[in-house]
Here is the input.
Amino acid sequence: MTQVIYDGTFEGWLTAVFEIYEFKLQDIVFAKQEPATSLLFADTYFVVTDPEKAKRVSDGLKSKLSKEGFKRIYSTFLSETAQSEDLMFRFASYVFASEKNIEEDLSNTEVWGIRKAAQITRRESHRMKAFVRFKFTKDELYYAIIEPECDVLPVIENHFKSRYADQRWLIYDSKRKYGIYYDLEKVSTVELQFSDDVNSAKFLAEICDQEEAFFQNLWVQYFNNVNIESRKNTRLHLRHMPKRYWKNLTEKVANLKK
Here is the structure.
């Protein structure tokens, strides 16, 4: 067995696929950054990301898949499901070994697995588009904290750039410790560390505009007033808005503190 260690980027994974074929590596298991201790006695192969090699693999996959088919591979990578890179490699191997387009072969385990993993990312990205709650800071920046199940920032970037094109904003993924920042011209990836209690009154008072608390309270009142108690369906509500997201939703923070 060979552990293929790469840098954790999609481009790094594509480079790894190229070198697996180039050097005819067998019994592949992917790992990010460092060897897995559970495979201590496996052979180890370290990959250095190479944009040219990555492009060749990417172009090869795109030539044999539809645009949506290739997008599913990237969405699977972002899903961060267990052994997602291994699934992607088996799928890619099936693609390269076939003369015809295989993405509708749902009887194949890898094809079906890719579809299921991609759906996780798609569902989570839709939720984040709805659940992002911006706060306005003293230096006129709108910021939002999210903690999604999978890495959706690359997927939702264009949505927010288009919708809030006239505002500076930052969306920060507290689980993965990075964010995307829009400066009115372009979106950049940034790494920073937020306070552990980003919803505390002290933290908000330090960084938020003086009228932000007023608008937050207004939103909470609106939410409470449109909520018809007699038609309340907790099970349905939790299905559409799972409780794990509540701590970053303005209208739900008060409920968590009760």
